[in-house]
Amino acid sequence: MADPGVETRTRSSVITARAAATFEPVGRSVATARAFVRDTLQGWGHTDVVDDAVVLTSELVTNAVIHAGTSADVLCLRAEHSVRVEVADRYPEREVPLQGSGPAVADPDRENGRGLMLCAALATRWGVDYSPTRKHVWFQLDLPERPVGTRSAGPVLPVELLPTTDDRVRVAVVQIDQGGAIGAWNEDAEQLFGYTPDQVTGKPLGDLAAWPHTPGTGTGLAEALKLSRWEGSYGIRNTDGRVIPVYGSHLRVRDTSGEPSTVCLLVRDYERAVLQSPPRNHSASPDNGTSGAEGRPIDPFEVFIGSPAPDDLDGLLQRTVERARDMLDGDAAFLLLATDDETELEVRATTGLPSARQRFARVPVESGTGRYASARMPAVHEDLDAAPGAVPLLGGTGMRSVVTVPLKVEGRLTGSLGVAAEASARYSNEEALRLQFAADRIALAVESARLGELERLRRGSLSFLVEASDLLAGTLDRDQTLALMAQMTVPTLATWCAVYTIADATSDPYLSYVLHEDEERIDGLKDLLGKIPPPEPVPSPGARIWTAPSQAAHQAAVRTSMRELGLGSSASSGISTTLATASAVGGETVVLPLVARNRVIGMLTLGKPSDDHFRQEILELAEDLSRRAALALDNARLYSERTAISQSLQRSLLPPGLPDIPGVEVDVIYRAAGEGNEVGGDFYDLFPIRDNAYGFAIGDVCGTGPEAAAVTGLARHALRLLAREGLGGPAVLERLNAAILDEGSRSRFLTLLYGELRPQPDGSAQLKVVCAGHPLPLRLRQDGTVTPAAEPQPLLGVMDDLELYEETVTLDPGDVLLCVTDGVTERREGSRMLGDDGLAEVLTSCTGLTAGAVSARIMRAVERFAADPPSDDMAILAMRVPEEHPPA
């Protein structure tokens, strides 16, 4: 139980917004609840805590709607500095899985309590509240203290390095409404441009702004005012018509009513250092205050190190390599980050190199033997032609000389920074020392940004796996499971995906599903993969490289190019398709085994486009997904096998077909209750006994499902055997009653209508029927009257000694005999029931219809009587003697 004091303080916070929703106790409600919380928090602008909130909500709603089996009430509350989410169910008597009074949760391997474990791990505060009728779990996530858009402070610079300005720096603050009109104009704006607030309020900013029109750029003043953040130079016309160059920083905001507007901060252009982020590099002339204390020029890399860093890791790395290249006047630069075990380096940013092709490629830390073989030490290579393979990343790029230095944090290798040139002997130890000094300054910022990215990836991975698990658990269909596996990986994890399945230990892998982010390339990809042997089904966990697709794609591209040279442009369409397919699978391809219940049941293959690579975090996420997907796929296989066996056995209990009876129309409709059931407790049969004599039966075994179906098989086969022995109806049913009682504890009572049908020479039909506890058969005459065709007698499977008798019924031409089970007459809608009277009323309207039309109308009336699906088995048997046709 949470600390009451904490609860009191949390509730005392001023609530500024709230959103609530209720979710039914069904599986799809979990995904709906996640979407509700995600949309609510994103609408409030709290994207920083969305992932944590979605993960926690998913666990708590799952506990309510799946495990507790009750509806879930979700309430989102926004305070000034935090977000609170409450999930309530109606199952208060469940225990709180805690130990002692602290927040430690019991055994983490237990099914219950995992949601509270996550609350303890991710939430700032959390608790469980009980009342006599409900229980709710709440958690609170504090919002980041740093407002969106702020940056960390720069270093302390010497006074002589500070930017110059006038005695009085004026910052004009201009607020622009959604239509681009000026709504606020401060005193500094009046001093800078000469206009009073009354002169400009309500006028478009475009009337005063001189916006530069650069060919090839699409951002004008109107577009810039709609951006969330923009910085740049333009001009403002003053009262004299002269254009004053200004530097502006535009920030888009919204007021309490939700209306957006733009706040512009403007300074004179030469005072841009007041607003600009990051500051521009200054030239090294001694008269502008940009030289160092010893008269040397300021190193542009030093200025970069002191400037605020970009918010994202990729931006920081890319700007680092660009400044490193400029600092040493190189032709290319690159930055690699070390893996957790420091055995490999992963390419994360390059300039002057084919970055798209090299991104996320991995090279070993220890690249070879010799003085400069390790990325852990600074290295200068005067000529790479004399030391091939020393820097694997630069192979085939034309670079001759290179200097590389390590990035280290607390003695641990975190990355490597390098600058290369096309000429040889460009760099010496002096350049290595300068680059190492810069790398030492930036290493901590890079590592901090990398850890932040990893944390975001971890939280995003949790949300992804929660969604994936929910989708995979929502189906037991094999084909749908295969499709979900591919659709979850493309394009989130890979450009294309192929799933191979293995039927059993003796079968070869089979290509079951292929998906590409470009649908037009799926057929070509499937054709290419079909021509190469499948990957080996290795059970060892983890992703392994599979080179066969890229090699096959390369060979196909070469053959196609050769054929194009010989054919000219006559087959250009097919050739271009082949080349596009080859390019689509020409990158890195990895295979992950699908292992379920200690057996490899398939392989998940992920691929990238030409010369692209997977990052390690994506491969780890794909491995987690493959484990879940393998279990879901195996569950679908087992379910399909069980369903096929069950349906095959059930079909054996149904009559093989209805015989043709001269002079009598017969139709049957059968519906078994329960998903996947073809036979239940209700049954019917119609079979020949001897010449011109046919037996018919319709019955209902107590209960539904396989147990009732077993008694169904016994009754149907016993009826046929006994009737063909020449026994009459009462004798047949008495012997069947004894056979049911012999089943002992497995016996079930049975209601049965059994009869013998004999067509007569005069066009009528004679029936001898015995109704043992079954709903009475109804006879419909040509004049529309409906009457019972038998008397009720004791049911079977209850008493040892039965004394049954048969009754004779004659059906005249045009008459109908309707036999049903109690699933028809007991169809309910609330407190209403169709009943015998309702069935008779429907049958009255069937005069003149064929037997098939009669049974169809009865079934239609039963289905329309209630909105819910039928909960009981139903059988309808209709027999009709057709009317005599008049002579032609």
From TrEMBL:
Q: Which Pfam families match?
A: GAF_2, GAF_3, HATPase_c_2, PAS_9, SpoIIE
Give me the ranges of the annotated region Disordered: 276-302
- Where is each PAS domain found? 173-203
The record's InterPro entries line, in alphabetical order, gives:
Bact_Sigma-Reg, GAF, GAF-like_dom_sf, HATPase_C_sf, HATPase_dom, PAS, PAS-like_dom_sf, PPM-type-like_dom_sf
Query: SUPFAM superfamilies from the entry?
Result: GAF domain-like, PP2C-like, PYP-like sensor domain (PAS domain)
Keywords for this protein: Hydrolase
Look up the domain of life of the source.
Bacteria
Biased composition (Polar residues) is annotated at 278-291
Q: What is this protein called?
A: SpoIIE family protein phosphatase
Q: Which organism is it from?
A: Streptomyces lichenis
Task: Recite the lineage of the species.
Answer: Bacteria, Bacillati, Actinomycetota, Actinomycetes, Kitasatosporales
